[in-house]
């Protein structure tokens, strides 16, 4: 069996680099590890960490094709982040004009969660720990 140790990173391609960079850093609170402009690809690569852990590579490319991103579409369903206070997190997102779905309760764990989207419509989840 393959001996995986952990998820190293998640790669996301965005349509509007500056808007997505602001969303992931100023709204979600990721810190910038490294930002590189790759001239040959006309592309930025932004390495982001959450609480000191490298987690997301944010890419920009000229004219990336759209992708179906509803939660029930084939492929990546959503990214989920743990929070300790879901009501506080939802209230913060609302101050940043980020709409969220109504809070639901997981039928199996009895934990509360909600969904929202990044600037490109990538489904994101907040799950109360």
UniProtKB/TrEMBL annotation:
Q: Mind telling me which InterPro entries this protein's record contains?
A: Fosfomycin_Res_Enzymes, Glyas_Bleomycin-R_OHBP_Dase, Glyas_Fos-R_dOase_dom, VOC_core, YwkD-like_dom
Q: Name one GO molecular function term.
A: metal ion binding
Q: Which domain of life is it from?
A: Bacteria
Q: What's in the keyword line of the UniProt record?
A: Metal-binding
Q: CDD domains recorded for this chain?
A: VOC_Bs_YwkD_like
Which stretches make up the VOC domain?
A: 6-129
Q: Known NCBIfam families for this protein?
A: PRK11478.1 (NF008551)
In Swiss-Prot or TrEMBL terms, this protein is called: Glyoxylase I family protein
Species of provenance: Rhabdobacter roseus
């Amino acid at each position: 069996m393959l001996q995986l140790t952990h998820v190293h990173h998640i790669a996301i391609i965005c349509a509007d680099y500056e808007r997505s960079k602001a969303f992931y850093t100023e709204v979600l609170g990721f810190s910038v590890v490294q930002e590189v402009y790759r001239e040959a690809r006309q592309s930025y690569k932004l390495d982001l960490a959450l609480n000191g852990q490298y987690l997301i590579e944010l890419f920009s490319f000229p004219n990336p094709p759209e992708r179906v991103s509803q939660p029930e579409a084939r492929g990546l369903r959503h990214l989920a982040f743990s929070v300790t206070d879901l009501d506080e997190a939802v209230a913060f997102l609302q101050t940043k004009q980020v709409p969220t779905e109504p809070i639901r309760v997981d039928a199996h764990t009895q934990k509360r969660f909600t969904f929202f989207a990044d600037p490109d419509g990538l489904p994101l989840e907040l799950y109360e720990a």
